[in-house]
């Protein structure tokens, strides 16, 4: 079946088996099992339970996983397309969509592939060479080779300076400390370009309008506002504001 192909195994477990993307962790969410802490509490409670003689330990863990999955992703009859179908969709010139552009950028400029290799502690499907899997998608979907991906990534880092951002100022880097992409981001302040790391926050969580009035995030919004206001310095005419290109 579809799961004979490791690429399909990855597609079906890319966000884990809990219906929850770690990068979307929201420490203030109200629903059951909606963040890392609540899921860990559930699993810790299961670990502390006494196993009945009629129940295997594997069954107990499986039931806990199903409970969490159903809470986050209610059962659906929708079938996830297999890798062959996805590649055919991408190769079709008539198709449009965010996913297609997203993968094209991964293959040409920003190869932020979420690898999961054998021997690691990655909690998803582990492959002997998980990078090979992503390279094969770029080749099959866009006819972009491994060598072209590596060259494109090097050119992007050279152009934008990698984590140094070419010592450019007036750039504010904001990250959540449980965002899996944190390792690729700028987390240390540089002259003229501060960095803010928000404890417990996932990927771009602070960008949600629903969080603006949240007491746990307000101090970070205030800090962001202070930084940007300092750059603009609204008390000065536009032509005198720092960083302005107006003459």
From TrEMBL:
Pfam families: Peptidase_S28. The keyword Hydrolase applies. The keyword Acyltransferase does not apply. InterPro entries: AB_hydrolase_fold, Peptidase_S28. One of its GO terms (biological process) is proteolysis. It comes from the Eukaryota. Keywords: Glycoprotein, Hydrolase, Protease, Signal. Gene3D superfamilies: alpha/beta hydrolase. One of its GO terms (molecular function) is serine-type exopeptidase activity. Belongs to the peptidase S28 family. This is Thymus-specific serine protease. The lineage of its organism: Eukaryota, Sar, Alveolata, Perkinsozoa, Perkinsea.
């Amino acid at each position: 079946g579809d799961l004979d192909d490791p690429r399909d195994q990855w597609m079906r477990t890319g966000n884990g088996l809990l219906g929850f993307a770690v990068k979307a962790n929201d420490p203030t969410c109200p629903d059951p099992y909606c963040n890392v802490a609540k899921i860990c509490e559930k699993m810790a409670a299961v670990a502390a339970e006494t196993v009945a003689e009629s129940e295997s330990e594997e069954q107990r863990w499986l039931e806990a996983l199903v409970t969490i999955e159903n809470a986050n992703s209610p059962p659906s009859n929708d079938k996830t397309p297999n890798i062959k179908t996805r590649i055919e969709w991408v190769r079709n010139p008539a198709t449009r969509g965010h996913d297609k552009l997203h993968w094209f950028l991964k293959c040409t400029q920003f190869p932020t592939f979420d690898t999961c290799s054998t021997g690691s502690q990655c909690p998803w499907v582990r492959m002997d060479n998980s990078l090979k899997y992503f390279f094969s998608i770029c080749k099959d979907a866009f006819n972009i080779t491994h060598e072209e991906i590596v060259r494109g990534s090097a050119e992007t880092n050279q152009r934008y300076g990698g984590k140094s951002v070419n010592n450019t100022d007036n750039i504010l880097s904001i990250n959540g400390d449980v965002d899996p992409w944190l390792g690729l981001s700028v987390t240390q302040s540089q002259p003229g370009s501060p960095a803010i790391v928000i404890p417990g926050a996932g990927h771009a969580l602070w960008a949600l309008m629903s969080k603006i009035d949240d007491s746990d995030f307000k101090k970070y919004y205030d800090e962001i506002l202070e930084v940007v206001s300092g750059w603009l310095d609204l008390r000065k005419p536009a032509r005198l504001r720092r960083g302005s290109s107006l003459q």
